[in-house]
Design brief:
This protein is mainly beta. The protein contains 1 helix and 11 strands. The protein has a single domain, classed as Immunoglobulin-like, CATH 2.60.40.420.
């Protein structure tokens, strides 16, 4: 019985390790914006924030929470991965250009938004995980 449980845990560990895909940390920014992945505690949900301030989005249950967020120009958004698998925050449409690279569980990614408009974001690992940042 002990051997069976040990084998089961070993298999689960291997499956979990393979879910993250590529381990390269790559940060790129458009228009002078840069993003960085860091360690932090889980984020609080935020619907809007002022210029020069910060807003937070959680990645939980293969979703961005909130899925849609409105911020003022100059706001930095921090995405926190509260899931058990890696995610990305990748520019999909609208002004700007950025890609977080893989954000492992418990890690964060920050991106500053300086151009007004609707910015679509997507997780390249989970293409159904999408969101919108409206910059006013």
């Amino acid at each position: 019985m002990k051997r069976l449980l040990l084998l089961l845990f070993a298999c689960l560990a291997l499956v979990g390790a393979g879910c993250g895909g590529d381990d390269d940390d790559k940060d790129s920014g458009g228009g002078g914006d840069t993003g960085a992945a860091t360690d932090t505690a889980p984020a609080d949900d935020a619907a809007s924030a002022g210029s020069g301030e910060t807003a937070k989005v959680d990645m939980k249950d293969i979703q961005y929470v909130p899925k849609e967020i409105t911020v003022k120009k100059g706001t930095t958004i921090t995405w926190t991965n509260s899931d058990q698998v890696a995610h990305t925050v990748t520019h999909d449409s609208g002004p700007g250009d950025f890609d977080s690279g893989n954000i492992e569980p418990g890690k964060t990614f920050e991106q500053k938004f300086d151009e007004p408009g609707d910015v679509g974001v997507i997780c390249t690992i989970h293409p159904n995980q999408t969101g919108t940042v409206t910059v006013e």
